[in-house]
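We store chain and fold; thus.
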Amino acid sequence: MKMQPFFASLIWLLIFGTTTAFSQHMRKSDEPRIAPLSWWVGMKNPNVQLMVFHKDLGTRTPKINHKGVELLKVHRVENPNYLFLDLKIDAKTKAGEFKIVFSEPEKEDIVMPYTLAARDAKQKKAQGVTNEDLIYLIMPDRFANGDPSNDVIQGARETNLHRDSLYYRHGGDIQGIIDHLDYLQDMGVTAVWLNPVLTNDMEKASYHGYAATEFYQVDPRLGTNELYRQLADELHKRDMKLIQDLVHNHVGAEHWTVKDKPYQDWLNNWDEYTNTTYKDQVLFDPYAAQSDKRKMTDGWFVPSMPDLNQRTEFMQNYITQSHIWWIEYAGVDGFRLDTYAYNDAEYMAKWAQDITAEYPSMTYFGETWVNGMTNQAVFTEGSTINQHFDTHLQAVTDFQTFHAINKTFTEPFGWTEGVNALYSTLANDYIYKDPTRNVVFLDNHDVSRFLSIVGEDINKYKSGLTWLLTTRGIPQLYYGAEIAMKNFADPDGKVREDFPGGWKGDQQNKFVSEGRNDTENSVFDHVKKLATYRKDNQVLQTGKLMQYVPEDGIYVYFRYDDQKTVMVIMNTNEGEKSIKTQRFSERIQDYKSGWDVVAQREMKINDQITVPGFTALALELR
């Protein structure tokens, strides 16, 4: 006897329910499902490919009876638990739920409901993150615990909660971030980038988010899908933006498609475990061996993160459609692309074109943790050094200026050392199509905090922050940078410590001035004044950059447009130094004074300007 469609649909809803229902528990890898989780009427691309997973589904015949939805093709693969369905959705199709019936003679029908939603014309989404923004990077598990009830989720592979260990979960969540959005807005932040928030149901070290086991579920220990959407809404109310961290290259070993692969080549397989070499040079080395190239792109990042084979169309659709889903569902404004260099280049170029075709204003930047300007620029769109292939990647996390600003304050001044490294790096910007789209930073979740790099010298630290908020590109702060959080990345991982005050019972609350010491308040005020000025003055967003060759450890550059000119003088010497202003007359022109953005005072521009040691002045010329 065949199961009646009504009861099949009811059982499906009771088990899996809405987005809310299954966001509150860990899904089992053998649960039936459809990806994408749902879709929308009126997308520019009317086609969508459903990956359907259900035991013994592969021999059945699917049928859809919903006006405007056409089943174009059924793909059967090696694993009988999967079917791939190509659908075309007419623009006039009515939103709502319909049923997909999978039939086979002498067997009960399998009935799965699927939802087509109406697009929300009023929803803010895909606004793009530009050089008008200031990004604040948060590791959700380590920022603030707004909902202790989700600290431990029963049924998860990892249920440890130990704030005294940096390798276990601490309980930070999305609600904790929402609770402190006023703090970020007051500081001058305009975009929030979270490390991945998708479910990481792994046995250990699941807190960082880079080993996803689900593509359509926020990790229940961080919150729900609805709460993530609420975060986007709350940001948009404040004219702020949400950046989602994407991992194309790999998933966690407990991902449901790894536990039961659709077909053998779903992953990049090896006869024995093979790790990536992490050698990006082989991707463009004219003398590279093909075996080295394959190890770089197809080798696994680590044993617990299987490498996805992005050369198959099914995998490409599975990944790309999930990213479109989050834009449309939650209102994501920008993407950060993890481990960009390890992906299949042709697929990533196609991915970029598909995303842009659906959302022309959407922006994305790739993590290219490499050494050397050309090594980095070769991954960006329209690069002058990549003549044979266009990646369509708009921008990168600018590790070259990161390396250079570190050298600026850790090396003595020399021909190529010290601040000359920073000057020389920016002088090579001609190899990018648009270097102002690159994301500049002092530190992040993978590297040592800048304060520790500069020996906890607050003057050096403030100089670095001044550069960050006045140079070209999109500046990114790592959580806690504004209160002078410190520590090195290796071997203890303390760069991922909790933000003090984010947990009930914390002895100190650094979210308020009363909880910060004098040094911390001084750094916070430094950041806030510069960030606020930057937000209010287009000259530091889109203004042109002119830099002068450093002399005697002094680096001078200008940001300018038709309305304003800002002069930055960076003294990288221990003692005070003076510069003769005549050298910079091309940009100083007839200006007689400068408003010190941080000190909030007027300075006369005479024949020379004296700058204290390890200090960077930002002066709006008047």
